[in-house]
Every structure is written in C-alpha cells, then in structure tokens.
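Prompt: I keep going back and forth on a fold encoding question. Comparing notes only helps if you start from a blank page. Show me how you would write down a chain together with its backbone fold. Please set it down just below, with no commentary around it:
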Amino acid sequence: MLLPPPHISPLSETDWLFQFHTGFSVAANRQLHALATMFRQRHGSLLQDVVVAYDSLLLRFQHPQLHAEVRINESLKQLANITLSGSTISLIEIPVCYDQALYNDLSAMAEQTNLTVEEIIELHSAATYHIYMLGFLPGFAYLGSVDDRIALTRKAAPVPVTTGAVGIAGTQTGIYPTATPGGWNIVGYTPLQMFDINREPACLLQPGQQVRFVPISLSEYKSLQSS
C-alpha cells in the first residue's frame, strides 16, 4: 500500500514526531517500524529513544544541537518515502488453550455476540495478526485486528488476570505477560512465557511480526506449562 509521507512536527528541542493519522493501519505501522530501524542504524549514537505506536513515531535526540547535524527537516522527509517490498515478516505461532476448564469469558462472549463458543474460537484462531507495538506491561504486544464479530468492548472494571491469558478488547487481541488487573475479555491461555528478563530478547514477541494462535488441548497446555 502506497502511503503519503507522514506529517513531521517538532514536540520540543529534542523530540520530533512522525504521524500518519491513519489509526489502525498495518501499512503505516510497518513503514514506521522500518523508519525506526533506519534511524537507529544511521543516527543511533545521536538518539536517546525511538518509540513507535500505531500510526506515529517519536524520535528523541540526546541534545538539541543534534537536530542541525542530522538535517531533520530535509533528511527525515526523504527517509519517509522508503519502500518495504523487499522486507520479510516473521510469523510466530502461539499455542492457546481455549478449554473452559480454565477460567475464561467465552460463555459471556457467546451471549454478547450471538455466536457459539466454538465459533468464537474458530474466528480468533483463524486470523493472522500484526504486532503494532509493545506497551502496558513488559512483553505485552498489541495485535490486530480481530474479526468484527468478536470485537468486544473492555469490561466495565478490571479483574485479576492470570499470566498467559489471551484477551480481546475492541478490534485488538493480546497476551498478558504476567498476573495483573485487566479489563480485556479472556478467550484462552498460552503456556509460553511472553517476558523473561534472562532471555535475549526478553520479549518473545516483537513489533512488526505476525502472530497466529494455534488451539491446543488442556492436556497439551499443562504439559507445555510444566516443561
């Protein structure tokens, strides 16, 4: 998908923002991640931070005077026109147990959507999801988009959520990397560890990757969880 260059604006003496104003757009998000990679490679020593969100990219330089060195107004606009035709995208398969012997919200979701539990599982596991960004908790990946038929609003109030819970909120799905209060509708659980400080990289999922959920049985889940 060919996109016009993003809007580029200064936020402070050190911060610059690229924004497409597209909202949930895989094409825009991929281009921003590609841009982020290029800036890290070309100007990594000058940058303090690089943050990609759904349709925006924040560049934070270490010192104000470095703006002149990288010719921010000219070079960034040129880099915004990069193409992604030659890039490869990795696909990660995540095993998920949808068995209702584990606590989940499938019955309540079935009532809200007028679908069967089996239909919800099929719709959730049939799609290939794009990882837009990481946030909320270390290793929490925001994935989209779920089928409109299972896109449900967040719960009215957060409830305790177990590590590995796979949830849906709006058109997004994601995996809780640790136990925490959460408001997403829980469809199942993965035995995989999303975040491990002793692993490299610590986050199992990375922005720009694609994810598919693979249904597994309760016995398979327990076996993988204990291994």
